[in-house]
């Protein structure tokens, strides 16, 4: 097996973990673990694992002092805000809604890159943005009668969109550092800074976690969110970026809704309604056009 084949398997596994972790979050939050508490647990545990790996295999990071402030600001956007909004969204909307709205991330990255980095907006990109935004609006305002999210579904959808926006801000802001340092070194620092910001926010909710009500499946879901949906997923995606490049790795984001939908239909018995299918076509088509490059 070649290195590229291994990398393609890695990126598929990473997106599988990201996509299916939505189901795990839905099982334990908000009724057992408040969303803000789950965010703190997720970030703190992942930070511990990343730094444990560094301690076991110490390598000089070579990070300059002037870059620590940017790392901290990136951590606020890409770790604290992204994880907080994403978990809040996953807790209050349906898994299929969440996975499709996460696809708006490449679209918001395109907008921010044009605004802050001066990247050119072609006609195809503009058409892609319009399609993706239309799909997102359709999904937010389409009532999902098959889910048990109730009146909080629209609020959950908005949280997921805010999570995508904050992560897009992180991607644009971290770009100069990704060109200077190893991805693993950046991860350990942004998760550490993200932990310092998330613990104060999640401290009070942590005291209300219903630990006594946890059964085996609940513990499995919590461990899965931390290990699968965070630690392993980030490691696998970084490996893929190193071997395939960011553009190819990013294109595999299309597989997340597929994994989430299959798991949701089988485990949660969600229904694929016509508005969901139409929104999926609009969003996926928009992402494709916004990132299409003529040869």
What topology does this entry show?
Layout: H1 3-28, H2 35-56, H3 68-92, H4 95-102, H5 104-116, H6 123-141, H7 153-178, H8 183-206, H9 216-244, H10 246-251, H11 255-268, H12 274-290
Helix pairs in contact: 1-3, 1-9, 1-11, 2-3, 2-8, 2-9, 3-7, 3-8, 4-7, 4-11, 4-12, 5-6, 5-7, 5-12, 6-12
Explain this structure:
The protein is 78% helix and 0% strand. The protein has 295 residues and is mostly helical. The chain has one domain. It is globular, with a radius of gyration of 19 Å. It starts with a helix and ends in a 5-residue tail after the last helix. The model has no long low-confidence stretch (mean pLDDT 84).
The percentage of residues in β strands lies in: under 5%
- Cα(first) to Cα(last) distance is 28 Å
The shape is: globular
Number of strands: 0
The average pLDDT score comes to: 84
SS content category: mainly alpha
Order of helices and strands: HHHHHHHHHHHH
The tally of domains stands at 1
Q: Give a quick account of the main beta sheet: strands, pairing sense, barrel closure.
A: none
Radius of gyration from the CA trace?
19 Å
Catalogue the unreliable spans: none
How many helix segments?
12
Considering DSSP H and I runs of 4 or more, what fraction of the residues is helical? over 70%
């Amino acid at each position: 097996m070649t290195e590229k084949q291994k990398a393609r398997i890695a990126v598929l596994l990473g997106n599988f973990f990201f996509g299916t972790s939505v189901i795990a979050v839905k099982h334990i939050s908000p009724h057992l673990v408040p969303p803000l508490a789950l965010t703190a647990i997720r970030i703190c545990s992942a930070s511990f694992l990343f730094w444990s790996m560094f301690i076991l295999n110490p390598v000089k990071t070579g990070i300059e002092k002037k870059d620590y402030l940017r790392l901290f600001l990136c951590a606020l956007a890409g770790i604290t805000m992204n994880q907080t909004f994403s978990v809040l969204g996953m807790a209050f909307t349906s898994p299929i809604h969440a996975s499709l709205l996460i696809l708006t991330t490449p679209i918001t990255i395109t907008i921010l890159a044009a605004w802050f980095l001066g990247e050119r907006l072609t006609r195809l990109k503009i058409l892609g943005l319009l399609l993706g935004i239309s799909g997102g609006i359709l999904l937010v305002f389409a009532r999902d009668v098959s889910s048990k999210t109730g009146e909080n579904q629209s609020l959950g959808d908005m949280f997921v969109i805010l999570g995508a926006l904050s992560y897009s801000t992180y991607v644009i802001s971290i770009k100069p550092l990704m060109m200077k340092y190893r991805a693993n070194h950046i991860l350990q620092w942004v998760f550490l800074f993200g932990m310092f910001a998330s613990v104060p926010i999640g401290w009070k909710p942590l005291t209300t976690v219903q630990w006594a009500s946890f059964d085996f499946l609940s513990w499995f879901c919590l461990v899965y969110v931390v290990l699968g949906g965070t630690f392993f997923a980030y490691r696998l995606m970084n490996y893929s970026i190193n071997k395939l490049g960011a553009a190819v790795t990013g294109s595999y984001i299309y597989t997340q809704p597929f994994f989430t939908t299959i798991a949701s239909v089988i485990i949660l018995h969600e229904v694929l309604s016509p508005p969901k299918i139409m929104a999926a076509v609009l969003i996926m088509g928009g992402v494709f056009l916004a990132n299409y490059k003529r040869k």
